[in-house]
Amino acid sequence: MSLKDIIDYVKGQGATYCDIRKERWETTNLTLKDGEMEKVTSGNEEGAMVRVLYNNGWGNIGTSDLSSLKNAAERAISMAKNSNEYKKEKTGMADVETHEEEVEMPMEENFLDVSTEEKVSFLKDLEKKLEKDFVRSTELRYIDRLVDKEIATSDGTQVNMKIPRIVTYLIITGKSDTIQRASEGIGGTGGYELTDRAYEKKDVVLDRLETLLEAETPPSGKMSLIMDPHLTGVFSHEAFGHAAESDLVSTGNSCLEGKIGKKVASDIVTIKDDPTMDGYGSFPFDDEGTKARNRTLVKDGILNDFILDRENAWKLDMEANGGARAEDFRVKPLVRMSNTIMEPGDMEFDELVEEVDKGVYAKSSGGGQVNTGEGTFQFNAQEAYLIEDGEIIKPLRDVSFNGFTLQTLQNITGITKEMDTGIGHCGKGQTAAVTDGGGNVLISEVTVGGRE
Predict the structure, then answer these.
(1) Cα–Cα distances in Å, from 236 out to 9, 130, 315, 437?
(2) Does the domain made of 3-214 have the CATH classification 1.10.287.990?
(3) What angle do CA 312, 148, 248 make, to 5 degrees?
């Protein structure tokens, strides 16, 4: 049976809504650690997710047996009917434009045509270029993945898309009085040609590690802080972007609830989440078959939009904007970001530094945590520098900073014209490929080195 035939069958059983997402994955995953290949896997996998809404109850069944999709649909109907009996909250799906389209995102060099041996050789060659006296350990990871998706909905959407993603991670460690680590992820949506970017970034991680091994501990207290483009992206994604995900908003777990049309940031701040731009988080349609589009979340300091799937758009009486993403066919889509960017401003980097009497210039993310409901964050920088009297003085290590998201957004007083982006995998019960970035950003006051 075709996907349309199965959906017609489900509708005949009284379902309010149904969609089926069929996927085929072709993947290579390699890890080279200290000269030894720790992981060499390559293969393919396929399956489908059937989702059924019956009045207010959902049924979601994932299966790797594509010959039994009708059976999966019958189980999803049964689950939805049972769920509806106990569901007190009403739900629905916002209307969207339907599409019948096939899209294949391009690769200049198809990584499926490159042998595993050649990919291993690439990692080994890259590792040789990371050999320095101060480097104690290296770990290089390579992942490529071509996902072929077919999505059909009971509204009439029928889309097919092929999305290629590739990433290389460089992780190196060294030791002085403490062990220090520097890392960088490089890749995007495209083909094997993107491995060239890893060679371009090798000096970045080497310089970072060498600096960290000579760095001092940071000051603590409230002070000015400049975030480099990668930390700007992490802040935009983690502290703000998650709070703008509509499932958190609709359940009261976001500090942005009820703030559409209100000022939430400095006038110079514009933040977008755009799956249509060139990035690791790009896609032509989301996993509900809604066409991807740029979402301007903050415009000149005013909260303008949320990231919305169809169900939460219905709950919030807003327009769905392609915000549903699933890790794979085993799981239902969740509201997720794609490529989250704080738009560049009109200043030069030297002008930002000149504005700082005492503060820190923080570069690249070393992890952190957020609380979207309370609107708080804590981030660690991989690399940092002390600023005094408008000059960068010396390197620092183990720098962290924290604060309240909305207050910090209001405290942004400068953004550079120069911008950059970074890539990663965002976790929210499921992982999703994402890009984030922006310009260098001056925050007039934030807490560095711990809460006071």
Answers:
(1) 44, 31, 25, 8
(2) no
(3) 20
